[in-house]
Amino acid sequence: MARRDQVEIGARITIENPVPGVMHSLQAKDGHPFDIKASEGGEPLTFDFPLRFSPGPKFFGDQVRPEGPERRFVYIRIGQSAGQMDSLWSRRMKIDIHDTPQSLLDRAAAGEGRVEFRVNGTANDGTPACATVRPVLKSIVR
Fold first, then answer.
1. How many domains does the chain fold into?
2. Which element (helix H / strand E) includes 108?
């Protein structure tokens, strides 16, 4: 699909309850860490990025990764994967975006705000969450 037929909106991933002191980042188009940050006391981390969509919806953008014909997700790199070489962990979170309701996309396209995906950053065992992490909330934020 031609880029001119895609609608660009703002997107945000908020990681709630990240493990303190562990670096997190978006994964750039080239696979490297991008926008690296860590939470000192467990406060939420936010990552803002542009997201494009077309009817279907189908998703595009530098942070969007495909898997199969429909699944689209964004990687968050953690610990060593985010450039923190002294970390105990080298992980990635895979955050699905392909099932985002069309109503949220339409609201973001109308200028109501950006689509936010909130995820829990700590696994049940107290280590950084990884693998496929389902958003606990999808909403519009300013």
1. 1
2. helix 102-109
Q: How far is CA 73 from CA 43, 68, 84, 85, in A?
A: 24, 11, 23, 25
Residues 37, 78 contacting (CB under 8 angstroms)? no
d(CA 47, CA 117): 10
Domain span at residue 10 reads 3-141
Asked if residues 61 and 98 have their Cβ atoms less than 8 Å apart, the reply is no
The Cα 10–Cα 108 span in angstroms is 7
Which DSSP symbol is given to 19?
P
In whole angstroms, give the CA distance from residue 20 to residue 34. 19
| Predicted TM-score of the model (pTM) | 0.94
Section 114-124 average pLDDT: 97
Single-letter code of the amino acid located at 128: P
Neighbours of 91 (CB within 10 A): 20
Q: What is the pLDDT of residues 28-85, one digit of tens each?
A: 999 999 999 999 999 999 999 999 999 889 999 999 999 999 999 999 999 999 999 9
Nearest to 24 by CA among 62, 75, 73: 75
